[in-house]
Write a structure and sequence with these properties.
Blueprint: H1 11-23, H2 42-48, E1 62-66, E2 69-73, H3 83-98, E3 107-110, H4 128-134, E4 140-144, E5 157-159, E6 163-166, E7 173-174, E8 181-183, E9 186-188, E10 192-193, E11 196-203, E12 208-216, E13 223-224, E14 227-228, E15 241-242, E16 247-249, H5 256-261, E17 283-287, E18 293-298, E19 306-315, E20 321-328, E21 339-343, E22 352-361, E23 370-375
Parallel strand pairs: 2-3, 3-4, 4-6
Antiparallel strand pairs: 1-2, 5-6, 7-10, 8-9, 11-12, 12-15, 12-16, 13-14, 17-18, 18-21, 19-20, 19-22, 22-23
Length: about 375
């Protein structure tokens, strides 16, 4: 199953899929394509791919049964205004979940765009009626992409009335806006990283396990001399790794309310553990490669993930701000660098500077501040 939208049909793409499935001995693997905003048309998908990859009946939505498990593919490009598709989804979910044979079993739903007020606060979300319709079916697990938001972040899974999961991107990932990254040219307003990610979903009798994987996560910037450079080619420094703990969804209970009461990834049960600096002196003054001054931060630790650092550097004599930024921890790169060097622009020899740094996780839990007074 793929939650990525299919692009315009291309014979080479079909051949690449088939050749690699054969190479890996996965000839019986089913490909299920969802329509997205980059596609030419539904007719073009039907013409360009095998019928079994996109077996819709006209509206870009369809049902599949994979080893006894129901998979419903929705067309998120039209869902909000498509009353026929809405009626089909609700009818199928009602029938599937009413069957005693499906008690405690998930119904997988896939579509390109996320729905509102779910994963990562619904960034780039659409189709509020999809959330409304799924709300009556806690056995539903919705997988969506489109936003490219990263799956390192535990906000990429959300439960309230159903389970919603962001499935990342196989090209580049994004981070919620408002942060800066350390680049070769200093701090920059970046929200994208050339990291490929994927989910591996395994459904058991008593649970569904969703493993998060970085396929390649090299430390690169997305721009070189102002040009887009996200298409990095092998060999990679990173061969890939897990991008976080496996998410486990259990559908426990005999009623809808009981199932929801046992949800694990709700707003009310979100993580409250703050990051902490584990070294005696987490801040130090270093010289960068160009002879400038930088503040080195020894990365803090968290039970899930340090998301960013609140960095404030001031001129000790005047109190003037030199750096005031929320700097991403480079959590999307694997292995994560052990330290970050924050440039101090315009540092003057002999002057004293005061640095204050707070480590923050994805839920806003913050560490005690680390401080350092230093000279260039």
């Amino acid at each position: 199953m793929t939650g990525r939208a299919a692009r315009a049909p291309n014979p080479d793409q079909r051949q690449i899929f088939r050749a690699n499935l054969a190479r890996k001995g996965m000839k019986n693997t089913e490909l299920l394509i969802s329509n997205g905003n980059h596609d030419a048309s539904l007719a073009a998908i039907r013409a360009g791919y095998p019928r079994e990859w996109f077996p819709d009946s006209g509206g870009g939505y369809y049902e599949s049964v994979v080893k006894g498990l129901h998979v419903l593919t929705v067309n998120t490009e039209t869902y909000n205004s498509d009353s026929t598709q809405r009626a089909w989804l609700k009818e199928r979910l009602t029938a599937i979940t009413a069957d005693p044979a499906n008690t405690g079993r998930p119904v997988l739903v896939q579509g390109h765009r996320p729905t509102t007020n779910t994963t990562m606060d619904g960034q780039q979300a659409a189709n509020p009626r999809l959330a409304e319709d799924l709300g009556a079916f806690p056995q539903a697990i919705l997988f969506s992409g489109h936003s490219h938001l990263n799956i390192n972040d535990d906000r990429s899974i959300h439960q309230r009335d159903f389970t919603s999961v962001n499935d990342g991107s196989m090209s580049y990932v994004e981070i919620d806006h408002g942060y800066q990254m350390v680049t070769a040219d200093g701090l920059a307003n970046r929200f994208e990283s050339p990291t490929a990610q994927a989910l591996f979903v395994e459904v058991y009798k008593d649970r569904t396990e969703i493993a998060r994987v970085n396929m390649a996560a090299d430390k690169h910037d997305i721009y070189t001399d102002g040009k887009w450079t996200a298409d990095w080619q092998p060999p990679y420094a990173s061969a890939g790794t897990l991008s976080g703990d496996t998410w486990t969804v259990r559908l426990k209970g005999s009623t809808n309310q009981q199932i929801k009461d046992n949800f694990r990834y709700t707003d009310a049960t979100r993580n409250t553990v703050a990051p902490k600096f584990t070294t005696h002196r987490p801040l130090s003054r270093v010289s960068d490669e160009k002879g400038g001054t930088a503040l080195r931060i020894a990365q803090a630790r968290d039970d899930q993930m340090v998301h960013h650092y609140e960095v404030d550097i001031t001129d000790a004599s005047t109190g003037a701000s030199v750096v005031s930024s929320k700097v991403l921890s480079d959590f999307s790169f694997m292995p994560r660098p052990n330290s970050l060097d924050i440039p101090v622009p315009g540092a003057v020899a002999g002057k004293r500077y005061v640095a204050r740094v707070v480590a923050v996780d994805a839920y806003g839990n913050a560490s005690p501040a680390a401080s350092l007074t230093f000279r260039k």
